[in-house]
Amino acid sequence: MIAPLSSASVPRTIALVRYGQIPEVARSRFPEDLEVRRGQKVVVQTHRGLELATVVDIVRRRAEDGDDAVPMEIVRSVSAEDEAKARAQRNALQGEFAAWERRIAEWKVDLQLIDLEVTLDGAKLILYVLNDRGPECTKLALQAAAAGFGVIEVQPVSAQGLVAMPKGGGGGGCGSGGCGCG
Length: 182
Known about the structure:
Layout: E1 13-19, E2 24-29, E3 41-45, E4 50-60, E5 72-77, H1 80-94, H2 97-106, E6 112-118, E7 125-130, H3 135-146, E8 152-158, E9 161-162
């Protein structure tokens, strides 16, 4: 997790970035020596790990703005190697979808899998499921961990988009220990 900047070091400019297989938009700080523009593809450090993102807009901040908690940071512009790695990861996951649907059925978890994603650094697999946050998300994450699949984040999705973390919850999705469900 990236620590919030102190108000003395709050950048005067931040970027809005869109990231994730099921897109999410968040504010992102960036190094002063990195030129960032609308539409640029970048690599961001999120609570899940390194992810590809697109800059949606640049936001000028006033010095008196009190909100200094910027949830992520732009690490660099996307390289050809980053794009090749992301493409290879997406191709590999295409073959995994049916296997994850089978596991969910075998484990008797009442969720519908709608997409898979892995972070650019391979740190985390994200399972997007059609559901509310709750015990079934936690059950899936626990079953996956018990079966040796490592760090899995279960991200519920509704017709309105990603299901947000309850107020007062920690970072991460179900299965990361921060959602308080289960």
